[in-house]
Amino acid sequence: MITHPHFGPWDYVILSIVLLISASIGVYYRLTGGKQKTMQEYLLADKNMPIGPVAFSLMASFMSAITLLGVSSENYTYGLQFIVINISYVLATPIAAYLFLPVFFKLQATSAYEYLERRFGKTSRLAASLSYTLQMTLYMGVVLYAPSLALEALTGISQLAAILSVGLVCTFYSTIGGMKAVLMTDVFQSILMFIAVFSVIICAVVEKGSFAEVWRIASEGNRTNLLNFDPDPTVRHTWFTLIIGGAVTYLSLYAVNQTQVQRYLTVKDLKAAQKALWWNWPILTLLSLSTSFSGLAIYSRFYKCDPYDAGYITSFDQLMPYYVVDTMGHIPGLSGLFVAGIFSASLSTVSAAVNSLAAITIEDYLKPLYRAVFKTHLPESRESMITKITSLAYGFVCLAVAFMAKYLGNVLQASLTIFGVIGGPLLGLFSLGMFTTTANEEGAVFGLTTGIVLSLWMAFGKHPPPDTLPRTTQGCDILNRAYSNHSTHLHSEDQSDYFWLYRVSYLYNGVLGLVSTVLVGYIASILIDKCLRRQKRIYDPNLFVPPLEKWMRKKLLEKQGNLNMTESSGSSDDLKNGLRTIRQY
C-alpha cells in the first residue's frame, strides 16, 4: 500500500487532453451553425437536439464528481443501503414526465419560473428565481470542490490549483459554446465517468478473483445489509427515508428545476422530451448502482487497513482516487484517465448550471428590469452578448463559493442537503400552482418562505454525527499503525442530547420543505381569499397538470351550453385569451 501520491507524466498528458477536448467542443459550436447569435440557439440549442445527447445531459447535469466520490465513500463507510434510492427514481420518473413536463412544454418559455408569473404573479416568479440562484450557486461550489479532493489525493496538487483548472475550463466552453456545447460535452464526459467507475470495479474483481469474493468481504464487514425498514425518521438511511426523500429530491431536480426544464426544451416536442427523460432513467440507475458497488470494491482492498484512519488520506471522499493510485498507479496514464472522469463529472454539472443561471438572470431579472426602466424590450441584438457575459460572471462566482465548500462536510450529504432545503419548497410552490386552483400568490409565496425557513432550520442545526460501520488499521504497516489512535471507529454518542428535529434524516429536508410549503400555502390562500372576499378566478387550463386540465376544460364546456365547432375543441373567450397571452409572451 502506497503512502504518497503518484501521478506520472502520462497521467498529466491524458488529463490535459480531456480538458482540451471539452474546451474545443465549445470553440467548435461557437464557430459553426448560427454561431450562437440568437437566444434560442445559445440557450435552447435551436430546439432540434437528438434525444440521446439530451438523455445523457439530464443524467450528467446532477450526477457529478459528487456522485463518483460521495456514493462510493457512502457505501464504503455506511454500507450498501443507499442503493435503495434508485427505487425512488423509477417511481418519480412518470410523475415528472406526464404531470409536470406537459405544462412546461405548453408554456415554451426559456425560464421555468415564467410559469409562476402566469399562474400567480411577478412576486412568486422572482422569489423562485432567487431561491434557484442560491441553490445552484451553492451546489456548484460543492461540485467544483469535489475534484480538488481527488487531485490532491492523487498528485499533492493544491485544492486552489485544482478548483481553478476545472472552473476556468468549464466557464470557458459553456460561455462561448452555449447549450449545444454543453449537451455534447455532457455525452463525452458521461462516457469518461463510466470508465472511471468501471475501472475501479474491474480492478477489484481481478485482484480478488471474482464478484463473489468482493461481496463476501463486504458481507463480513456488514456492508451489504439492504433490509432496514425502520420507520423512525431519525434513522439516517432506511427504505422510507431513501424512497420518500429520494423521490422528492428527484422531482425537485427533474420536474421543476430550471437546469433540467431547459434541457427538455432543446428537443422538438413533448414526446421527444418524455423519451429523453425515460432514457435518462436507466443511464442514471446504471451509474448509481455501479458507483455503489465500487464502494464495496474499494472496501475489499482496504478492509484490513483503512486509509483514512491510517492517515493516508484526509477525507473519506478521497477513497476512490486513493484506491486508483494505490492499485493502478503503476500503469501509465490510467490514473490520469480516472481523474479525467472525475473532472468531466464536475465539468458537465457546472456547465449546465452556469448556462441555466444565465438564462434565469436574463429572463427573470434583466428583462423585467429593462422594461421597467426603459419602457421597452431588451433588444435581441444585445441579448446573446449579455448572456455570455452573465455566464462568465457566474463561473467566477462559483469559483469563489468552491473555496468555502470544504466547511460543508461530506460532499454527497452536502449536495443532497442543498437540493432538499431549496428544491423541496420550490417543488411545493410549483405543485400549489399545477395541482390546485385554490392557491393564490400571497399564500403561495408565504408557503414558500415558510418551507425554506423550516428546511434551513432543520438542515443547519447541530446534528449528531452518524454512526459508521467498523473500520480497522490492524493490517497496516507498523509505522502507520503507530499514528492511528485506535483500530476501529464507531460513533456511540447519545443522540437524545440533540433536539429531535436535528436528528431527523437529512433526506427529509426536502420532504419537510415540500409538505410545509403546500400545507401552509394552501391554507393561507383560502384564508386570504375569504378575508378579502375575492371572487373565484378563471384560469387557463394549460397552467395545470393534464388530469386537472381535462377536468377544467370539461367544466368550461358545460358552462358554455350551446357549443359551436370552435367551442367543442375546448375553447372559450377566457381560454382563448389565456392561450393567446402565453403565445405572445
UniProtKB/TrEMBL annotation:
Belongs to the sodium:solute symporter (SSF) (TC 2.A.21) family. GO terms for biological process: sodium ion transport. It is found in: Cell membrane. GO terms for cellular component: plasma membrane. This is Sodium-dependent multivitamin transporter. Keywords: Cell membrane, Ion transport, Membrane, Sodium, Sodium transport, Transmembrane, Transmembrane helix, Transport. The lineage of its organism: Eukaryota, Metazoa, Ecdysozoa, Arthropoda, Hexapoda. It comes from Acanthoscelides obtectus (Bean weevil). It is a multi-pass membrane protein. The chain crosses the membrane at residues 12-31, 51-71, 83-105, 126-147, 153-175, 187-207, 237-256, 277-299, 337-362, 385-405, 411-432, 444-460, 506-528. Its main location: membrane. Pfam families: SSF. InterPro entries: Na/Glc_symporter_sf, Na/solute_symporter, Sodium:Solute_Symporter_SSF.
